Amino acid sequence: MKPYLDILKLVWPLALGMVNTALMQSVDRAFLARHSVAALEAVLPATTLAWVFMTFFQAVVGYSGVFVAQYHGAGDEKGCRQSLAAGIWVALLALVPMLPVCGLGDWILARTAGTPTLAAMERTYFDILMAGSVLVYLQMAAISYLTGRGRTRVVFWANLVGNLLNIALDPLFIFGFDLSRLGLPLALAPQGIAGAAVATVVALAAQCLLLAVVVRRDFALRVFAQPDVRALVGRLLRFGVPAGGYEVLNMLSFTIFVFVTEQVGGEAFAVSNACFTVNYLLFAPMMGFALGAQTLVGQARGRGDDAEAVRALRRTLLLGLGFTLVACLAVLAFRRPILALYASPDLADPAAFQSLGTTLLLLMAAWMLFDAADIILSGALKGAGDTKFVMGWMLLNAFFLWLPLVFLVRWLHNTMPALWGTMIAYVVVISIGSAVRWRRGRWRQIQVVDFRT
What we know:
Elements: H1 2-35, H2 37-62, H3 64-73, H4 77-93, H5 98-112, H6 116-131, H7 133-148, H8 152-175, E1 177-178, E2 187-188, H9 193-216, H10 227-262, H11 268-303, H12 306-333, H13 335-340, H14 350-383, H15 387-412, H16 416-440
Antiparallel strand pairs: 1-2
């Protein structure tokens, strides 16, 4: 029992931190649903596209956590600090392509939105999020350093403070406020979807500042100039770029799927957005378990203990799948009040919203266990350095299996349940492939960290 408790001690702050972030986005969308159906419809495509662009460098920076974990497992504190410096260097380098990326994103949204009004709202939200992208990268460098050393509680508390700030600012920025009646010369006109984006960026800044204060205790600026750090940047790019590619391909395939579902018409897209928000609440803890598996496998590999890496993954999988099963059953049991949170007052048919939402949640529950298994397995493979496989396997399945199936279904039977059903085939195949890859043990031959540096 103790090994499972040790894993939970590492993972629960990560999982709850991911849930906090998912809850923050859910609250954003619940407030926006009260603002208008159009705002709810616009927020998912804009958010998804922004993360397609941001997630690459976020994942590359985040892979510094594997270096930290392996150095920590080997007892090399200098290597841990140098890995943090390498992560910060990559975070700053990520600023270079951001301007052309913003222009490309605006062009995509202008040509994929259902109406000009939706396009304008999507571009507003997207541009504001992209303006705060450097905060995401710097935050990830600090999170990766702390997580690789097992200090996950600090990450959780910083995440919680930032998310609570976001939730507090949402109604003020979305709906506006006027304190003149209280004798204070403070007022803000309603900002709608732009207000939600600004609240998110302010929360990111707060999280980044808190983590910087914590990390500064272990860090000195002179580390940046050390030759070993430059070598680590090269190794980080070598292993981190495929890890970033994996995340981009994952997000890009999902974004294409979202844009396809946007064309279904009617209020079905608003229902789909609401259900995907619920799905993210279940998916987010699995990202915490995956990061835990990545860290535990990385630490075991740093100690040269492959048997412990296998045991760590097996235990993390059992805990993650158990959590997912219970969470899916709870969502299905309370589906009506959950869906009601996202039902805008100006819906034409609230009963149809509930009916379609129930169908989509049932489909979601059908794929979640396989999805959770693949997420955790991929985390373990990345922790062992097998990043080229996870990227290649994602590319093959997402773009040569799932998306062709999505477009075939769109042509033959363009309904939201049919489109959502394609996800089941996709996650079953990709999870089986990841399990086979881990069991074959190719990862045992990969050396992420050169302990001579």
